[in-house]
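Table S2 (text version). Query chain:
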Amino acid sequence: MAKKLDKNKLVIVESPAKAKTIEKILGRTYKVISSYGHIIDLPKTKIGVDVNDNFKPSYHTIKGKGPIIKQLKEAAKKADKIYLASDPDREGESIAWHIANTLKLDHNEKNRIEFHEITERAIKDAVKNPKKINISRVNSQQARRILDRLVGYEISPFLWKLISPNTSAGRVQSVALKIICELEDKIKNFVPEKYWDVKGIFDEKYNLNLYKIDNEKIDKLKDEKLLDRVKKDLKKKYEVISSKITKKIKNPPLPLKTSTLQQLASSYLGFSASKTMTVAQKLYEGVSIKGEHKGLITYMRTDSTRISDEAKEMAKEYIIKNFGKEYLGSISTKAKKNNKNVQDAHEGIRPTDINLIPQNIMQYLDKDQFKLYNLIWQRFLISQLASMKYEQFEYILEKDKIQYRGSINKIIFDGYYKVFKEDEDLPIGDFPEIKEGDKFTLDKLDIKEDYTKPPARLTESSLVKTLEAEGIGRPSTYASIIDTLKKREYVKLQNKSFVPTEIGYEVKTQLDKFFPNIMNIKFTAKLEDELDEVDSGDKNWIDLLKVFYTELQKYEEKCKSVVEEELEKLVVSDVLDKNGKPMIMKIGRFGRYLASQDTESKENISLKGIDISLEDIKKGKIFVKKQIEELSKKKEGQKTDIILDNGSRLLLKYGRFGAYLESYNYKEDNIRKTIPKEIKTKIDNNTIKKENDILCLKDMFDKIEKEEAEILKKAGKCEKCGRPFKIKNGRWGKFLACTGYPECKNIKKISKEMLEKSIINKQDLNNKNMKVENMKENKPYDDANLESIFKYSQKLIGMTFKNILEKYYIDNKLDVKLLKEKINYYNNPKAKGGLGNLLEKYYYFYEPNNISEPDFPKVGTELKVTPYERKISSDDDLRAGERLVISMIPNDEEISLEFENSHLKKKMSKILMVWYERKKEQLRTLNKIGFVNLFDIYNKLYEKDFKIICEDYYKIASKIREGKAHELSEGDTKYLGACTKGATAKDSLQPQYYNKEIPAKRRAFSLKQSYMTYILNNYVKTNLMKYDSILSNEDLKNNSFDDYIINKINQYIGKTEEELYTEFKLNKVAKQKNSILVNKILGVNTENSEEFEKANITIKTIRVEKNGIPKESMSFPKICIREFVKQEFENSYEYNYFAETRFLLVVFKENEDKIYKLKGAKFWNMPIEELETIGKLEWEAYKNKFIEGINFEISSNGERIKNDLPKKSNHKIFHLRPHSKKSAYLINGKKYGNGKDSDMDLLPNGDKMVYQCFWLNNTYIANIIKDIL
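Corresponding structure-token output:
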């Protein structure tokens, strides 16, 4: 008899996102609906588990799921066949079981299907192969849920009474908290040990690491006697005792599983675990691509790295087509499967179709989806590629039982390195001709002193790795564990690392004390293993719960008696009741509160929102009076001087969104007013004037209202509907909006003509002698005498920052442990205020501030602490380590056009500069102070500089006032720059005061690095001038700097090169002769001029052919590809070079007789918006190509080699090509070209190519100089 066909089939999925896609794939006979996750769960308000009846759970319908259950039941009645297609994991199995129970389905029927990927093949295969609900998996999930509920509901009440009602215990989260707290204890108790890193340089070319002493391997040399022994062998012969070549293989990483996906997404993309899983869920469920919904990845909750045969075949075809057969990985299974911990039987996380290349579908994904998909796609591809094969040459030199070891590697076959090179760099190079018995002289010892570092705090990535390694939780639970720790405020993130809070520490301490099994890592891991045994059917879930609960009750009994004792202890406060007795702290249903000691009194005060020290609670007395009064004042409101027409006074109050004004008779007149942003800022900064405890706001409001009335008067009526305008506040400030909204939606910006002078006066900071709590009263210098300050500052020379801290702590008899913490704090490059902050607090004894007054207000002098470095070429030549940031440029108020009237003048008139020598490998506090000098802009020494700085200031201020702050670039000016502040500058966009429509980066006034270097070498270190000067003070009286230079060159326009060489007696064969010629024209005989050296101005001479196109592109220093590919554009050499450099372009044009004549000159710097858009795209195109891998085309005779780097013709600004005409390549181990090894740069895949450098395109240059031509 023929089998009856099921015409109406119902598929129930968890998420509505994939329902339509699945329905479309399965066809008309299928209806697909969603349960929207769980439909029933344990109740929220009670434990919901009967511990006396085999832990029977009491499930309730989740609030809001009633209509969904009704829809499911109605659809089920009409269906001939029902499939339960919740997600393929324990939780999904549990959801399927709850739905089956709700719909009263037969548990013996095969109605459970799993979609491991949302593709047509996977969906149809799943429907063809239904199975029964896996009751063991359901029981495992149910046991986990009940275990967590028992811990939460049985233990949390103890924490509420011992610590706070806002605390809770969690079976897995508490152990994770313990791991974080114990690591923090190790960090706090860590005592740094001195050690030496020793390298030996043999025969001036072989750089080897100290390897063994007396047959003991040396990792960090900590014994100074052994160091002395090493030093004695300097200039002595060592013998090669071992020299061997070993063949090695580096296997590609495995495909991703949940934990490694979370770790990599955290490390590479900065995603939290929960964000990673949210984005991955969307990729699994699919997106619409060209009108077709596609699931992009396999199911993302898995412990397996197994890959299906179909997926391997798909990868094989792609690799052979795009890389060649030799790049195909091993066909054997690569998955590492630890059966003990693997909970799911599905594959590793991979793309459903490797041909859906991330870049090709980028337009269909949001930014986060693209980043994560790209990570998953690349990892899968890499995992299927062949291993990298290489040879390692290792040699060991020995003398008197002291050994040095060196190694070098040669890639034989790049394999997966063609696509992805791991972080640890293999030193690559040619093998030296060294054999056993050879002898080499130890010419030099490179010894670096350092201190051992404390263990690193855990990031999200390393916490996930630790939890997995310890067997705590399972990958599907890691995100919720981390989220709970953050939401409960048991931990905080500091530089992306977890630091336990005070309350977190206390929760860990109490749980450790009373429930040691819950906090035991091995116990928790064993419990996870037992849950896996329940899943596999090897253990009874009720037996597991009975054993756990029996153990838990023992500890509960012990805890109860202690808690009762604790609650009997009185915790008194500094708040008195009506009878004058201290009120005591109690814990009630709604948290902590203060109650009278008189049991008959009903007087109480809530402590909600009050921060109470746990240490104070332990001591039995809390100090909350001040906080309660402040909170009470905020609730009652503070009187202002604004009186309404009805006679009611406005009060300043605080609500959910900050400060606002409310009528004293609000209940009667219902009047509230918003506070303008500019006044709100002053309120937040506590800078509003008060008279008799009344806030003076009326004048400020009156001025704003007057200004707004004037603007509205000038704005007139709405040109679309004739109604008046009103002023509203938006993201970028105030704008005009029609009062006819929503019928009329006309808006427009407030023009400059409408704006009056800002009515908010600048903060009154005339009180220069502000009292600061932490300031030392009797300073060891007279802060009203500049000579006294300078003499005291000179004592810093020769001191390290560590010395300064040590002296402070010893003089004040402070705890040495605190000293270590403080040293560690300032060793962190991200320490607030850095080393300058250290000097201010611990040497000059005043609190750092952000006000616009100088640091020593009585003598008008600013303190600046700045680094310098020694140039590699010469120990005598120093360079400034960075620009000197002086003051933020205000972006929310007017800026003066003249330096003399600016806020910058106060900060810059006199600067006490403290210079310290920065060594890259050295801890920051070990840096030594080398120089102290006083920079006085009004001193005769700086007279000429001052005039140029004023010019620079005018240029910057003019651009800002024109509403072009977004176009500012350091290359615009000479000595004074407008720099962006730090690596996050690109994220610091804010509205401009003079242009509300276009936001600009926050910038600061700074003295340029080139100018600081000149000050250091010529005014600070030697007081000797090294370069000729172009200008005198007289020259600048009637000319600007730029005009003077250009006029001086342009007087020779029309003269040929030959005529100019003769006139200035210049050797025709001299290198860079045209640059030397320009210097000669400017009256400079040294290699550069003083002014150009200070201003970072580079001379570029351009020869232009008759057709108006420069004869060649303009070249810049060569790049190092290994460093280049690691950089981001904003931190790259190229970005900094073009953003900070000013060019003097001097143009010579070819005439009909093919003779070049001087045509003119101009100053130019690359427009910042052009650099940050087109320039960035072109730069990144080269970076991406280097990472992806360069393809070479070699001619049959091996003499011509082409590559597929982006071509000059495809780029507007710059291109990459060699500077040298020599050709030098090493491809697949074979050398090509006529160059030497020193002419080649190493590529990421181990090949080499001739050194490359950036060139400005000649067509781009032609456009820059067209005004001269």
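Notes on Table S2: The CA atoms of residues 1135 and 1171 lie 8 Å apart. The longest helix spans residues 135-162.
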